[in-house]
Amino acid sequence: MNRSIAYFISPHGFGHAARAAAVMSALRAQDPTLHFEIFTRVPRWFFKDSVGGAFAYHSTLTDIGLAQENALSENIPQTLKHLREFLPFNQSLISGLAQRVARLKCKLALCDIAPLGIAVARAAGIPSILIENFTWDWIYAGYARDDARFHKHIAYLRGIFRAADYHVQTEPVCHYRASDLVTRPVSREPRTSRKQIRARLGIPPRARVVLITMGGTPSAQQHAFLDRLAQVKRVYFVMPGNSRRAEKRGNLVLLPHRSAFYHPDLVNASDAVIGKAGYSTVAEAYRAGIPFGYVPREKFREAPTMARFIEAEMGGFEISAADFESGHWVARLPDLLALPRRVRRDANGAAQIADFILGA
To answer: How would DSSP label each residue in 66-133?
Structure first.
């Protein structure tokens, strides 16, 4: 196969980008000559930090997803507005991107759930592989019960997703469909040892560590429960995205949205995670074998699937958004930390996808 691959990635949060980065790293581990042409609005720096080796970046709106009010709440009127502007795809956009993909000599398009990539691949005459644990038509169907304006977008996107030449689903899968491959969770691998990360953070090697994260959404302000955490004895709390600069306040380690620490390393150096149950955080916590105190997105259709997976295969429990912000969950922290760390012996889904692609 030609050594250039186009990768179209949804800009909805960082979970799709993290999964794509894991797949790119797994592919390159098997074939270092591979080159990736990345099409997305996820910031370039995310891939610079997450993908080993060179890549080309094309700032392209590939997907709408959901307009977010914050990490846990979506804006439905704004989402519908963006969908009306984006769908159906402008044919000049499709043909222009198809010509660019052809000039770049890409012979394959990978799509983490960005439907634009499937349409571009078809126009360029190259195969496409859809990688997902849900698709947007399925997500929007949950909102269509209350707002019929979603129905036309659901029908259009369903047709696009079905046009993919190959279909890969990654656990936790929200809705099983006919597919060519179902993998274990796809996660970026840690790069630095638990001991080294703790030393860099200024945390004793035997201390208990809890990572508090709301995923790829920076916090507009510091959480109200910080004073309560400062009173917890013999536990350190690492909080990415909650400070403009890295700082240590006693047992609190506050980090900026983009820090010098690779997120999978922070997960691996922790004994538990508390925060939003987004795909990449769940997958990375699963790979590290640590329990998860998860804050569900109440109206997001993926949430029940994540909850079931966490409780069955990782250990953990739900924390309501209100209890998270108030800090009431701190009283349950001993129960979370009492859950055992699990040793993972199954394959990383990223390696399974790389085997499938390179063996095709």
So the answer is: --BSSSS-B-HHHHHHHHHHH-SPPHHHHHHHHHHHHHTT---EEEEB-HHHHHHHHHHT--EEEEES
Q: Per-residue pLDDT for the chain (360 aa), expressed as one digit of tens each?
A: 458 999 999 999 899 999 999 999 999 999 999 999 999 999 999 999 999 888 999 999 999 999 987 767 789 999 999 999 999 999 999 999 999 999 999 999 999 999 999 999 999 999 999 999 999 999 999 999 999 999 999 999 999 999 999 999 999 999 999 999 999 999 999 999 999 999 999 999 999 999 999 876 555 456 778 889 999 999 999 999 877 889 999 999 999 988 999 999 999 999 999 999 999 999 999 999 999 999 988 788 999 999 999 999 999 999 999 999 999 999 999 999 999 999 999 999 999 999 999 986
The token duo for 178 is: 């006919």
Torsion sign across C-alpha atoms 124, 129, 131, 132:
positive
Domains of the chain: 4-183 (3.40.50.2000), 194-337 (3.40.50.2000)
CA-CA distance, 119 to 139, in Å (whole number)?
20
CB-side neighbour CA atoms (13 Å) of 41: 12
Q: What is the pTM of this model?
A: 0.95
CB-count exposure of residue 90 (10 Å: 0-12, 13-18, 19+): exposed
The tokens of 126 are what?
Answer: 């190259």
Residue type, 249: R
